[in-house]
Structure formats: structure tokens, C-alpha cells
Amino acid sequence: MLQLQGVGYAYRLNGRQVRVLQGVTHTFERGSFSSLRAPSGSGKTTLLNLLGLLDTPTEGRYLVEGRDTRHLTDAQKSSLRARTFGFLFQNFRLIPTRTVLENVTLALDISAQGPKRAQREAALRALEQVGLAGRAEHVPPELSGGEAQRVAFARALVRQPEVLLADEPTGNLDAANRDRLLDLISAFHARGGTVVMVTHDDVAAARATHPLRLEALMPAAATPLPVARAAARG
Ligand SMILES: Nc1ncnc2c1ncn2[C@@H]1O[C@H](COP(=O)(O)OP(=O)(O)OP(=O)(O)O)[C@@H](O)[C@H]1O
Q1: Which of 14, 46, 218 has most ligand 1 atoms within 8 Å of CB, for mutation?
Q2: Please, is 174 exposed, middle or buried when counting C-beta atoms within 10 Å of its C-beta (0-12, 13-18, 19+)?
Q3: 49 lines ligand 1 (CB under 6 A)
Q4: H-helix or E-strand containing 82?
Q5: ipTM (interface pTM)
Q6: Is the CB of 227 under 6 A from ligand 1?
Q7: Partners of 26 in the β-ladder
């Protein structure tokens, strides 16, 4: 479903190119649950951004359901992103001044899905699934970390995406909240969802059907260099 073919990415830093990923080749099959582990700074977040169409590879091809994303316009990319992907981040990324319900509803609003009342009902259903419908009118600063991440999960899934892209989603949670979140992610997977989860956590990685290491997705010669060395070499 998600095919990376020789994908590379280089950031521009002070007029120089800093290569972060090179030759990444891998297919994430529909319905798989992959965990992705790699040394800090080696490009895991960059890879998630490429997978989620938030960024575009500077080398190689990336196909989503067989469609070569190089040929998509920005509008087509946005629409494919909204339909296909839900995102979950380590630091939740909720809007602190909007209620829990608004935070979830906004995900539907941005992709213009349905009338306002239907959006509100869908958001409430998503909050019920994570056990937080009773907190709908609270604002994020009133939530615990575990609750905030479950709201972020509801926001990620309210559009019913096929793929969940998660970047260290348990990084800021204690063991009980980590397990509760992992149960939600596993349930999404059991319903047929595809998961790609960056994690350093062995407990989280153990939930995956496909535990991966970033280095194994790249040809040996292209194993990422620490950025300082890469920059020094130009
Ligand atoms: N906007 C940017 N401009 C320049 N370089 C960047 C930019 N974003 C990231 N980088 C560089 O690319 C490298 C890979 O970053 P990325 O965030 O993908 O790594 P990571 O493996 O997710 O790291 P971590 O595990 O620490 O979160 C980093 O070392 C960073 O220096």
C-alpha cells in the first residue's frame, strides 16, 4: 500500500544539502503494523513526514496505493493525505485554547467532511471510543498526559484513515497510559488499519507485526551519517 523505492531526502541548511535518508526501499503492506527503530537523528521523523505526504522525497519514488506521488498536484496530495493518514505525535500537538471536542472536530473541518452537526457527532463518537466523551468541553491543559494523547488519538482517527503514522506516541506516557494507548492502536490494527510507529520503546515495538530498523531499509552504503559529518563532507 505504501511503497518507497530508493527514496532519499536532503534538507537545505545554510545553502548546503544535508542528506538524511538515502535509497530507502520498503513496502508497508495494507493491514500491517510496523514499528521503526533507529538511532536518534537518523531520519525517522523525516521518513514519517515523507510517508504522510507532509514532505516530498528529493530522490526516488513514493507510491500510495500504486499512485506515484511525484505526479500529484499539491491539492491532490492534500486530499490523499486527508483521506489516507492519521497522525499521532509524542507531544500530542493539541490546540491548548480549543476544547477537546473542537480539537477533534477541527480534523474533520480541515478536510471539509460533512455538515457541522455530523462532524460534532463523529467527534463525540471518537472521544467515546477513547473513554473521554465526558471531557469534551475541557481544554487540553486540564488533561493528564495520557488523556491528552487519547484525545490526539481520537483526532487522528476521526476521519477514519487507513493508515496511522505515529511518532514516538508513548514517549511522554507512564506505563499504564502507554499500555492503554497501545491497546487503542492495536484495536485500530485489528480492525484492518495499517500502522507505522516510530518508537524506541521495546514494549511498544512488541505490538508490531513487523519490527523494522531504519538501517535495514537502506543499502549498506547509504546508512545515514551523523549530520555533523554529513555536513562537513557537503
Ligand atoms: N528542517 C531541517 N533542516 C535541516 N536539518 C534538519 C531539519 N529537520 C531535521 N534535520 C536534520 O535531519 C536529521 C534527521 O532528523 P529526524 O528528525 O528525521 O531524525 P529522527 O531519527 O527522527 O531523530 P530523533 O530520534 O532524535 O527524533 C537530524 O539530525 C536533523 O539535524
Answers
A1: 46
A2: exposed
A3: no
A4: helix 74-84
A5: 0.92
A6: yes
A7: 4
Question: What backbone phi and psi angles, to 5 degrees, belong to 94?
Answer: -90, 155
Q: Which residue has the cell 493525505?
A: 81
Q: Give me the DSSP letters along 181-208.
A: HHHHHHHHHHTT-EEEEE---HHHHTT-
Domain residue ranges in the chain: 2-233
pLDDT at position 11 is 94
Q: Which residue's C-alpha comes closest to atom 16 of ligand 1? A: 43
Q: Which helix (H) or strand (E) holds 34?
A: strand 33-37
Compute the half-sphere exposure of residue 180: CA atoms within 13 Å on the CB side of its CA: 17
pLDDT per residue as tens digits for the range 51-109: 999 999 999 999 999 999 998 999 999 999 999 999 999 999 999 999 999 999 999 87
**CATH 3.40.50.300 is the classification of domain 2-233:** yes
Q: Whose CA is nearest to atom 13 of ligand 1?
A: 41
The amino acid occupying position 4 is: L
Nearest CA to 153 out of 87, 66, 60, 65 is that of: 87
Cell of 54: 507532509
Query: What pLDDT score was predicted for residue 227?
Result: 52
Report the predicted TM-score, pTM, of the whole model to 2 decimal places: 0.90
**pLDDT tens profile 184-230:** 999 999 999 999 999 999 999 999 999 999 999 998 755 555 554 44
The average pLDDT across 36-42 equals 92
Instruction: Work out whether strand 2-13 and strand 16-28 pair parallel, antiparallel, or are unpaired.
Output: antiparallel
